[in-house]
Hints:
This is DUF3006 family protein. By secondary structure, this protein is an alpha+beta fold. Helix content is 22%, strand content 35%.
Amino acid sequence: xxxxxxxxxxxxxxxxxxxxxxxxxxxxxxxxxxxxxxxxxxxxxxxxxxxxxxxxxxxxxxxxxxxxxxxxxxxxxxxxxxx
Length: 83
């Protein structure tokens, strides 16, 4: 099964991860901070069955996509025509 895992927030020493499956069903998972030492909110995460790691490429693409959407909403993007 192909799932997308995103670090939603930190609650003390616990990471709250949003997990979305192929059917767009969302579930929440909690993971101790020590299992995600270098992760920050908004990071795309990979889990190999034993270890979590940040998917640097997917995270960068996600952040770019969000920045473009925000710019468009603020009317600063060339594709933000008034329809």
